[in-house]
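INPUT
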Amino acid sequence: MRYSQALIPTLKEAPAEAQVVSHVMLVRAGYIRKLAAGIYTLLPLGWRVVRKIEEIVREEMNRAGAQEVLMPAAVPAELWQESGRWQAYGAELLRFKDRKGADFLIGPTHEEVIVDIVRRDVKSYRQLPLNLYQIQAKFRDEPRPRAGVMRGREFIMKDAYSFHADEDDCKRTYQRMYDAYLAIFRRCGLAFRAVEADTGNIGGTLSHEFQVLATSGEDNIVACDHEACSYAANVEMAQIVPAEKATPAAAPREQVATPGQRTIEEVSGFFGVPAAALAKTLVYRRDFDPETGKGGTLVAAMVRGDRELNEAKLKRALDASTLELAGDAEVERATGAPVGFAGPVGLVVPVVADHEVLAMAEAIVGANAADGHLRHVVPGRDFQATAADLRVAVEGDACPRCGKGHFKAYRGIEVGHVFFLGTRYSKKMHCVFLGEDGKEHVMIMGCYGIGVTRTAAAAIEQNHDEGGIVWPMAIAPYQVTLLSLQPGDADVRRVSEELHEKLEAAGIEVLYDDRDERPGSKFKDADLVGIPLRVAVGKKSLAEGAVELKHRRDKEATKVPLAEIVATIEAKVAEELARGRT
Amino acid sequence: MRYSQALIPTLKEAPAEAQVVSHVMLVRAGYIRKLAAGIYTLLPLGWRVVRKIEEIVREEMNRAGAQEVLMPAAVPAELWQESGRWQAYGAELLRFKDRKGADFLIGPTHEEVIVDIVRRDVKSYRQLPLNLYQIQAKFRDEPRPRAGVMRGREFIMKDAYSFHADEDDCKRTYQRMYDAYLAIFRRCGLAFRAVEADTGNIGGTLSHEFQVLATSGEDNIVACDHEACSYAANVEMAQIVPAEKATPAAAPREQVATPGQRTIEEVSGFFGVPAAALAKTLVYRRDFDPETGKGGTLVAAMVRGDRELNEAKLKRALDASTLELAGDAEVERATGAPVGFAGPVGLVVPVVADHEVLAMAEAIVGANAADGHLRHVVPGRDFQATAADLRVAVEGDACPRCGKGHFKAYRGIEVGHVFFLGTRYSKKMHCVFLGEDGKEHVMIMGCYGIGVTRTAAAAIEQNHDEGGIVWPMAIAPYQVTLLSLQPGDADVRRVSEELHEKLEAAGIEVLYDDRDERPGSKFKDADLVGIPLRVAVGKKSLAEGAVELKHRRDKEATKVPLAEIVATIEAKVAEELARGRT
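OUTPUT
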């Protein structure tokens, strides 16, 4: 491709609203343009990157036995009414009426549609299992679209859905998808972790996220640092090994007046002890139904004063359908004291405490009385509580899998997610089959998503420098950029043109910068655009019968004899593409 | 691909609503499933066909110098307000409000979006020309969606838009797109015609349709039957060679009482002459603006009694912005007679007449008086009219291009359309550039569309028999279907499995029917699904060391020695794929 004929509108400055690196660079390097908040056009370079990721996804999905389909974007409301999501989904859902007034939506995900297809055409266990996927533009009306294509309103997603006669079979496909995802992100050339994850609103009982590691990531993950251990989890999910129980303190519990001392900082300062000597008690309302206004019993949860309570863990521990912090009035009613003085001793609501709290020799806790705390409180002696894993994991926590390593903390960008769904949709929508036993059974489902446009953005968050993007070879828009440094010079032009032809004939993807621009500006654009290999044809090196080859990652270029350059490039491209396939 | 693991839900019966062949067969053969009126899921086989067409489109577009992008489906209303289409488009347009209440639409076509991109990033003649395309699911809320994916509400389209500094350059790209379209439909293995077409609502001054020939087609086209001539046109556009003027009749014109004789049939019956001896006069209202209720002057148009008036031609001849038949009251006011008795003699509104009318020796026409006609009316003597080409072309009309051949009539399915747009969008949306002269100019545009899903349906309308689809090789979902006739037999199974492996290793796309079904049902499904080559492995032929090979087009299978079958298939596939490329 000749740069002079390509639409690559590079910019000196990114729009002020662009705050994350990938957004800034995708705009500046001419990969994307904004059409509306969270809605972007993929220009030729951007689309090439996305297509490459799509092809990798497609190849690995097909290899894993999945079949590609294309479902409509426009979905009749009835199906979503059947699953209950028409009612449950909020303003994120694009709803519209067709010309006859029928309710429709633009599918942000396609469980209902695929279930409808399968329940109509699949009747027998002999037709199972099935794993169907599509790659499609989705629309989700995010309240605060930001970060460019990292969290857009319109974005490209690969969504797959599998159907099974039993759970074991579903788990086999789940594992196959897990392995396919490893292969996909490895082939994309990304550093990532597959981590155990919360199933959140999609439901189901087993799930893993695929997180591209980047300091700018929104997700906190921990991974075992032991070389033989692969344990990794979202901090929301990371299991924590229960602490060893300390010998209980002997001192009797004692109430101390602590006027105005409510926060952990204030109380630990008041007593002159570290926060770890305290235990905090938080009051939650569970199972409240906002529609009927019913439900909503209270429960108290405890973690050590220096720890953060993990609400996802608490929700799972309680098996609660909803969970939220109780209001001030509720707290006062439950504890008999204003907020800031809650404690487990004599509390009338059930108490669930993190293992670590129950392992303490003694603790300082709220007294359930205004301006009062209790010290020398011994768990088991002074209060009873259900033990659970409630706190957020932190770096240094012991690994629950191998028992040898410890957690290292990372930040990640979620680019893939696999779910064991069970019968969540198939039961509601009566997606059944006749089993070998001649009886009707509900199908077991899994679902598996990859954010395709987000993967492109995550790749940049992980791979860039001040000058621009540093694409992994497999997903770069071109493999080589060929700079003609003095296109006005007859020799330079001739060699550049020949090299362009030879590289293309060798099947190498080349962006040929034939523009009538200064070398400096060509080098700058090349850095910004981020194509892995750069060949510069210039008068100086040409006099020595050589051209200059530089990897985008490297600082310095090396001289390569003209006669060897095509073979050198072929070898480098092949080597880097192969690396992800091992 | 093993049939036993594939989702190919063939049906004995198609739904009653399916009326056209392609709809019936796509549903019966398990290619598509309906989600809502005019909205279909592409199942694995359907999606494979569409992907193959997409890839052919993509290769030829890239070869022709176009660059692929992806624009958002969700488009802010402002851009369409700027072009005026937000107001002009009717209920076909999917409009919605986002969560903040802003007006959006799902783009049925993307002129506004691409113009917005280009006007922001392209400033100089040095950045032109540009030709940008995308392949995308579109939504148009058709009032009567029907015919399956032939005219659906959601469908896949390739839309391209080119930008130029001058008209000549635009015409060069237009020609390049025209040639690319020839290559695309040729490679798809279709019999088609590129025909001159009306520019309709898209506007512009030059356009060609690409029509797949099929008796079920909705469009009427004519093409010259002379072997050396390539003239072809939509009947709306087909130029008609003016007839030679007959010697005017000498008889004086005479009014005849024709009580109640209004239609051509009635009047020709009354006079005992053929319809060709009559000339009919139709009154139209032109340039009426429905918004302001202003404009709308009347005009009369004449064609011979046996001809059909072509409103598209009339509109062009008059250079009218709108055109519609006048109401009864208007006709009476203009002619002084009730509908059915209009004629050109003494008429106060302007008259435009088809060449053929003006060439008549004499004609019978309405008398502009109730229950009266005039005979022996001689054009030029008894009335004056502007001459124009107004009638619908018919088979047998002389070719306007070569002057030797005559029109043959065909029915076609429009699968592609190229337009020279001019400045229709670029002017309204101020899409300008600095020319070599240092001055600002408006860009000249072309636009070029292909209905991808419709091409798949059109291929079936053209290629099928009673048993099912007969795919051209290049767009068949698989190239070969391999039937294991007695999968329970050890030899048959072993040979089938080996053949499956060998064919796949040779890069052949195979659908391997390994199901535990009777041969008869496998043959039936193979015919229905329509894969070009069928290899049957059965006990009988295997005893002779052979398998049976049959082309879907042929009646009889031939025996091919097992040792030669892979090479035979490779050769046949290669030959058929090559045929479209010549």
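end of record. The mean pLDDT of chain B is 94.
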